[in-house]
Amino acid sequence: MIKQSQTLPNPTLRALLPGDALTGGGTDVGNRAALSEIDASCRVPVLFFFLSGLAWLLAGTVLALVASIKLHTPGFLAGWEWLTFSNVRTAHLNTVIYGFASQISVGVTIWLMCRLCRIPLVAPGLVTVANLFYNIGVTVGVGGILMGDSTAIEWLEMPRYATPILFISYALIAVWTIVTFRLRAERHLYVSQWYLLAAVLWFPWLYGTAQVMLLIEPVRGVVQAAVNWWFAHNVLGLWFTPIGLASIYYFIPKVIGRPIHSYYLSVLGFWSLALFYNWNGMHHLVGGPLPSWMITVSIVASVMMLIPVITVAINHHFTMLGHFGKLKHSPTLRFMVFGAVSYTLASLQGVASALRSVSEVTHFTHHTIAHAHLGMYAFFSMVMFGAMYYILPRITQREWPSNSLISLHFWGVALGIVLYVVPMSIMGFIQGTMLNDAAVRFLDVVQFTLPWLKLRTLAGLLLAAGHVAFVINVGWLLVRMFEPYRKPVVRILTGEAETVAAAKQP
């Protein structure tokens, strides 16, 4: 850790260290006071984002379990017309994408941006109100899906009347995040800030463009499919991925106390992601009625994604080298490293799946679902869990109350997602091979998938157990935070305070 009295020898070294480490971290009283002020400014909005996100996570988990059971037991809840598989699966997707993942990612972004800019959050009250309306938008959207108002456009299924609420709410949050960045006290930009600022700007471009071209003034014909996959693929790659990588770049060096391995690899990884990822979506339409050049360009761009993936993997691995022993002591580090490894695996699987020879087998199979969960859950969600394990004790000024619940959370979700992704990937490939064989009856393919789908439900139960353990631990942490205020409130409510005051009067 660099002390306040030390001089950083060159700009490159500054780029390797998180901004709030540049003046000595916790060794300097003034620096600790500044960080405490920053954390205090973020406390209410970030807690609101996290608690709202976790509430949607629990709702999404229930919907996911219902959808999973329906795949192998179609009669489950068959008497409830609003709980058909299509409704439940779509509601689950939008709940976890817009309710859980987006809110947690915004909360992490705000806290990281304030810490790295070394400035308290600008207009925390406005950000909190905007988040309240954002949650209203998600509630309206998910409710509309369950009532049958889905647009039937994947990742954009929320009805049109929910869209303005979501977009305006996010715009307000994004504007004040950018204002906070603009007023930063630390002029040096750390690598995490590149990714965070890019994500904050990329998402409204993606969401707004897709809404206009698919719902407000719809384009015609197969162009709709092209726009749909451009959006669906880039939401993961240009919204969630940058925030996930920004978190890894911040928390791994922060926890182990050493700088990122290579500044130049960080630059290469960032700009190659920005250059190649936005071309990727069309490879999901291999065999579709689109111009061959569009799909070919997308496949080439997918293969070129090996550049950012490998550079980021090398940077993370060599940063951690010699510090893997700290994994058993830090929940943040465990989740971050698990997520970093999963990012590499998900990206390599994505590159392979983009190839025509592979896509012809895996398309329209459960292999695609496994790949989506490897990227969205094993990478992004695990990283967000790790970030919350670091941030929550700092904004509540309380330690985690239960190590057992932390272990249950990690092992539940880690084993659950492995049990989900590995069998589903294998099954999906076999399923695709059987579907391509004209001699195999479709009913035989369905019968083949049933045992694997039951295994998927078991994996979902493990994930659910981990989620419940985490939410209980967070609730316990909040109880500890409010403990000093409990007795005064009880005294006021019971009238004890007035009795004591009257007794003291002469």
Write structural notes for this entry.
- This protein has helices at residues 11-16, 29-72, 85-117, 124-146, 163-182, 191-216, 223-256, 263-276, 292-304, 306-320, 331-354, 356-362, 366-396, 403-435, 442-494, 496-504.
- It has 506 residues and is mainly alpha-helical.
- The protein is globular, with a radius of gyration of 24 Å.
- It folds into two domains: 24-188, Four Helix Bundle (Hemerythrin (Met), subunit A) (Up-down Bundle); 190-506, Cytochrome c oxidase-like, subunit I domain (Cytochrome C Oxidase, Chain A).
- 76% of the residues lie in helices and 0% in strands.
- It has 16 helices and no strands.
Find the count of extended strands (DSSP E, 2+ residues): 0
Q: What pattern of helices and strands is seen along the backbone?
A: HHHHHHHHHHHHHHHH
Total domain units: 2
Determine the fraction of residues in helical runs and give it as a percent range: over 70%
Helix/sheet category: mainly alpha
> What coarse outline follows from CA principal-axis ratios?
globular
What is the distance, rounded to the nearest whole angstrom, between the alpha carbons of the first and last residues?
A: 58 Å
Enter the CATH topology name of the largest domain.
Cytochrome C Oxidase, Chain A
- CATH superfamily label of the largest domain: Cytochrome c oxidase-like, subunit I domain
Rg over alpha carbons: 24 Å
Q: How many helical stretches?
A: 16
- CATH architectural type of the largest domain: Up-down Bundle
Biggest sheet: strands, sense, closure?
none
Average pLDDT over all residues: 92
Portion in beta strands: under 5%
| Top-tier CATH class of the largest domain | Mainly Alpha
Which spans have pLDDT < 50 for at least 5 consecutive residues? 1-13, 22-27
